[in-house]
Specification:
This protein has 295 residues and is an alpha/beta fold. Helices cover 51% and strands 14% of the residues. The chain is built from 14 helices and 9 strands. β5, α6 and β6 form a beta-alpha-beta unit. It is globular, with a radius of gyration of 20 Å.
C-alpha cells in the first residue's frame, strides 16, 4: 500500500491520555484545525481541551471506532497493553487502515507485539516516545524517536511536526522505545551530576544562578542543567516529568540492558536514588527533586 500524508481536512485524530504532556500535544493538533477526540481516565483533565473544541469520548473503544489516527500518551506499559490489546481496546474496535502512534515510554517488546497484531488486522502502528518534558510539549519542541515501517513514519511525519522539532526515524518496531532507553540512561546519571553541582555551588558560598551562567554553555551543558537546575535553585519541584514515571523508564532500561548482558552502574545508582526519593513521598514530584537528597 502507498501511504499518503495522514493529515487532511477529513482527518479525525483520537488522543488518549491527557496528562502533563498529552494535554499540550493534543492542544497543538486542535489549534491546527483538525477534529480531535479525547479520552482520559480522569475526565476533568480534558475539560480545557473540550472548551477549546475537542470532543470528549466515553471510552477507548469509542475513539477507535471514529478516529482514523489515534495517539496514546498513557502512564505505564500495562496501561499501553490494556489500551491496545484489551477486550475493549483499540485494536479490537478499530477500522481497517487506522494509524496508531504510541508516544508513551513503554517496552520495546510490547511495541513489537502491538505492531504485529495491528498488521494482522490491516492497521498501522508506530512507537514514538518523546523527550523534552512539559516545556518541550508546551512549545511543540519535543524530540520524537520513531520505530515501525518507514513509509508509515513518512505518512505520519506532518502530524509529528505539529508536536515536535527533532523527529528521527530509528528503525523497525521497538526502535523508538530502545532509543528512548538510551535517552533515559543518559539523563539518569546527568541528573545526579546537575544536583551535586548546584548543591556544591550553594555550599561553597557562590550564587548558583551566576554559576549556571558560566557552566550551562560550556562542556558541562545539558538540557537538564539549563532547564531543571533553575527549578532546583528556585525550590520548584513541580513535575515536568514525574519521578514515578522516571523510575518506570529506568526499570525498563535496566531490564533491557541486563537482557543484552550489559552492566549499567550509572543507571543502577540513579534508580536507587530515585527509589529512595519515592519512598520519602516524592513520587509525584518532578525529577529535579533529586536535589532534596542533598539539600
Amino acid at each position: 500500500m502507498v501511504h499518503k500524508d495522514v493529515l487532511n481536512e477529513n482527518s479525525v485524530v483520537g488522543f488518549i491520555g491527557i496528562g502533563v504532556m498529552g494535554k499540550s500535544m493534543a492542544g497543538h493538533i486542535l489549534s491546527k484545525g483538525y477534529k480531535v477526540l479525547v479520552y482520559t481516565r480522569t475526565q476533568e483533565k480534558a475539560e480545557e481541551l473540550v472548551k477549546q473544541g475537542a470532543v470528549w469520548k466515553q471510552s477507548v473503544a469509542d475513539i477507535a471506532t471514529e478516529a482514523n489516527i489515534v495517539i496514546t500518551m498513557v502512564g505505564y506499559p500495562y496501561d499501553v497493553e490494556e489500551v491496545y490489546l484489551g477486550e475493549n481496546g483499540l485494536l479490537a474496535h478499530a477500522k481497517e487502515g487506522t494509524y496508531f502512534i504510541d508516544m508513551t515510554t513503554s517496552t520495546p517488546s510490547l511495541a513489537t507485539k502491538i505492531y504485529e497484531e495491528a498488521k494482522q488486522k490491516g492497521l498501522y502502528s508506530l512507537d514514538a516516545p518523546v523527550s523534552g518534558g512539559d516545556v518541550g510539549a508546551k512549545e511543540a519542541r519535543l524530540a520524537i524517536m520513531v520505530g515501525g515501517d518507514e513509509e508509515v513514519f513518512e505518512a505520519c511525519k506532518p502530524l509529528f511536526e505539529i508536536m515536535g522539532e527533532n523527529i528521527v526515524y530509528q528503525g523497525p518496531a521497538g526502535s523508538g522505545q530502545h532509543t528512548k532507553m538510551c535517552n533515559q540512561i543518559a539523563i539518569a546519571s546527568n541528573m545526579i551530576g546537575v544536583a551535586e553541582a548546584m548543591v556544591y555551588a550553594k555550599k561553597s558560598g557562590l550564587d548558583p544562578e551566576t554559576v549556571l551562567k558560566s557552566i550551562s554553555t560550556g562542556a558541562a551543558g545539558s538540557w537538564s542543567l539549563s532547564n531543571l537546575a533553575p527549578r532546583m535553585i528556585a525550590g520548584n519541584f513541580e513535575p515536568g516529568f514525574y519521578i514515578k514515571h522516571f523510575i518506570k523508564d529506568m526499570g525498563i532500561a535496566l531490564e533491557e540492558a541486563k537482557a543484552m548482558g550489559m552492566d549499567t552502574p550509572g543507571l543502577e545508582l540513579a534508580i536507587q536514588m530515585y527509589e529512595e526519593l519515592a519512598e520519602k513521598g516524592e513520587e509525584n514530584s518532578g525529577t529535579q527533586a533529586i536535589y532534596k537528597l542533598w539539600d
